[in-house]
Write a structure and sequence with these properties.
nicotinate phosphoribosyltransferase; TIM Barrel; six-stranded antiparallel beta sheet; elongated
């Protein structure tokens, strides 16, 4: 799918709240880069180089604005560098140059580990998110990996996912305020299992109290309720729908991969019955429709990745929205940086070469 080019605008460096002094001192850098810089400075050698950055997959670029912020704020003289780069959300080809840095190598040698790590992590999230969007035929996606990794990466990961959708005109729902903060968004969420447990396992009571709170404090919330607490999703969905009426936007199916929902106990034998499967979704959809609740949406979560979503879509399973968690932050999408020119002459190691890219734009 072709990318609709985003506006030619980058996030300001200050938004990333970088530990500038520690980065400038090489605190987060592989020691050998610091040692290389110290060697050059001791020899009073200041080679003018072209550093070229690429990765090896079909990917959706993430982390570029953050990487540029690292260079702007943590190099020893940003004004002496000439930087060209692609934009967050750009689709990139294997080995395509996404960033070039030209200037005295000692000004930025200490930052290679940092900007490569930023690009690797954020591009992984952007690429995974785009694959899920495409698999879901552009149905709404809820970005739910916050609980699966360290809190400090939520903001950047959320933005990487946001950009993957925004560049093709597709919004992604975030579950934490931190994930949505760089563009001024807010976290969204359903009635969780914890609230149901806090009301003694009574899903209807928890949902009713949540809906009453939302009406007073946050009327824009689409009230969505988890209905698997008692492992009886069909009956619980109907009970919640009858209790909340027009206040209910949707129900969320989240059955454990180790359980078989009660509605399927008499149908075992010819399909995989555990977790959120296609037959369970149909059971809930048909029950809601027959009771006059055709407008209520179904959100499916729990073990979903691009492949499982694609299978659901090919089978026409009536899911309205998918919640996706750890699948969006797993995998690898590593970047490499090479000095390819030194003082105007080719200097790349064997197997690498200078690869000009007319898509790169100068960074000011």
């Amino acid at each position: 799918m072709a990318t609709t080019q985003q506006q030619k605008k980058r996030l300001p460096p200050e938004i990333f709240d970088l530990p500038v002094e520690k980065m400038r001192e090489g605190w987060y850098t592989d020691a050998y880069f610091n040692h290389a810089r110290d060697t050059l400075l001791a020899d009073d050698r200041h080679p003018r180089v072209v550093m070229q950055v690429f990765q090896k997959n079909e990917a959706v670029l993430g982390g570029m604005d953050e990487a540029i912020a690292v260079l702007k704020l943590c190099s020893h003289d940003w004004e002496a560098l000439t930087v060209h780069a692609l934009y967050d959300g750009d689709e990139v080809a294997p080995r395509e140059s996404v960033l070039t840095i030209e200037g005295d190598y000692t000004l930025f040698a200490h930052l290679e580990t940092v900007y490569l790590g930023v690009l690797a992590r954020r591009t992984l999230v952007s690429t995974n998110t785009r694959r899920v969007i495409e698999a879901a035929n552009r149905k709404p996606i809820i970005f739910m990996p916050a609980r699966h990794d360290h809190h400090s990466i939520q903001t950047g990961d959320g933005y990487a996912a946001h950009v993957a959708g925004a560049t093709i005109g597709f919004p992604i729902g975030m579950t934490t305020d931190a994930q949505a903060s760089w563009w001024g968004g807010r976290g969204v969420g359903t009635v969780p299992h914890a609230l149901i447990a806090a009301y003694g396992g009574n899903t209807v009571l928890a949902a009713t109290k949540f809906a009453e709170w939302a009406a007073r404090e946050s009327p824009d919330i689409n009230v969505t309720v988890l209905v698997d607490f008692e492992n009886n999703s069909v009956e619980t969905a109907l009970e919640v729908a009858r209790a909340l009426g027009d206040r209910l936007w949707g129900v969320r199916l989240d059955t454990s991969e180790t359980l078989v929902d009660r509605s399927l106990w008499d149908e075992l034998g010819d399909f995989r019955p555990t977790g959120v499967n296609e037959r369970l979704v149909w059971k809930v959809r048909n029950a809601l429709n027959e009771a006059g609740f055709e407008r209520i949406k179904i959100v499916a979560s729990g073990g979903f990745d691009a492949e499982k979503i694609r299978q659901f879509e090919e089978l026409g399973v009536p899911v309205d929205s998918y919640g996706v968690g750890s699948a969006l932050i797993r995998g690898q999408n590593d970047f490499t940086a090479d000095i390819v020119l030194t003082d105007g002459l080719p200097s790349a190691k064997v197997g690498r070469r200078y690869r000009p890219n007319e898509r790169l734009e100068i960074v000011v």
